[in-house]
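Example 9 (inverse folding). The structure is encoded as follows.
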C-alpha cells in the first residue's frame, strides 16, 4: 500500500434498496484510479465502540468531489459528511485489516478497518 497522502470522503447513503436500516455511511479511500470503499453502519467516534463495516466494490473517483447526488441505478442518495486526507499506516492481507490515519473535520485519528468492524482512535 502507498504511504503518500491521499484523499478520503465519508458519504451518508440513504434509500439504498439493499439496506434494511435505510441509512449507512460509505468511506472512500482514494487510490490511483478508483476509491477503495467500505460500508459503515455508523460514523466511527474516537475511542467509541466499533461500528460494523463491509468492504464494497471500488467506487469511481468522481465521488471524491461530489457534495451530494443520486446514486446511479436507483440505489438511493448520497451526501458528503466529511472529507480530508489520509495515509496508510499498515495493511495486512492475512487478517484483511487496513489502518489509516485520517485528517478530516469529523474523522480525525487512526482508523482500523476489518471486514467486520471499524474503530477510530487518536
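The amino acid assigned to each position is listed next.
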Amino acid at each position: 500500500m502507498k504511504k503518500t497522502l491521499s484523499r478520503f470522503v465519508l458519504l451518508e447513503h440513504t434509500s439504498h434498496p439493499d439496506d434494511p436500516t435505510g441509512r449507512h455511511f460509505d468511506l472512500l479511500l482514494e487510490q490511483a484510479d478508483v476509491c477503495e470503499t467500505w460500508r459503515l453502519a455508523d460514523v466511527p467516534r474516537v475511542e467509541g465502540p466499533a461500528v460494523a463495516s463491509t468492504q464494497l466494490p471500488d467506487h469511481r473517483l468522481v465521488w471524491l468531489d461530489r457534495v451530494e447526488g443520486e446514486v446511479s441505478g436507483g440505489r438511493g442518495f448520497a451526501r458528503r459528511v466529511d472529507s480530508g486526507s489520509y495515509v496508510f499506516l499498515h495493511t495486512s492481507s492475512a487478517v484483511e485489516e487496513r489502518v489509516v490515519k485520517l485528517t478530516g473535520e469529523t474523522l480525525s485519528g487512526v482508523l482500523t478497518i476489518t471486514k467486520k468492524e471499524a474503530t477510530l482512535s487518536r
